[in-house]
Amino acid sequence: MVPTEHRTSLRVGWSSQVLMATEARRPSNSNASVGSPLRTSDNRSKQSPKAEPLWKTWDHLSLKHGEHATVYHTNGDKYRGQYEGNMKCGQGTLLFKNGDKYEGEFREDMQSGFGTHWTNVQGKLILQYRGSFWQGRRHGHVSVLPV
What we know:
The protein folds into two domains: 1-26, no CATH class; 63-139, Single Sheet (Histone H3 K4-specific methyltransferase SET7/9 N-terminal domain). The chain has a seven-stranded antiparallel beta sheet with strand order 3-4-5-6-7-8-9, with no helix packed on it. Strands 1-2 form a two-stranded antiparallel sheet. The radius of gyration is 30 Å and the shape is elongated. The chain has three helices and nine strands; from the N terminus they run H-H-E-E-H-E-E-E-E-E-E-E. By secondary structure, it is of the alpha+beta class. InterPro entries: MORN, MORN3. One of its GO terms (cellular component) is acrosomal vesicle. This is MORN repeat-containing protein 3.
């Protein structure tokens, strides 16, 4: 025979089924309730210790900061220059996968400040743009050189 609480739970929904099934399996001498913190013998609450994830504990050691040799990105780009807080910041050179090249200032992982952009045309770098960049885009009144 199915216990009464299981028959009732089938009519009220899935979350109630889980709660009632949990209550039915709990030993009769258990003083803990569903969702309550752990209790000690003198009835004080005891929080279970939470282990800090390893990536959080050691991540600060792997951050890029200062001058670096060439860093190869997963998308095929290469960057050589300065980092601050694991982001491109300061002077640097970015070689794109398609052969284009940017040399100049970076801020918050983007081209920002004065820089020069060359375009790869049949294996040769041709100067395309020299001027200001802001948030990864050309910025200000400039003249774009033909490719």
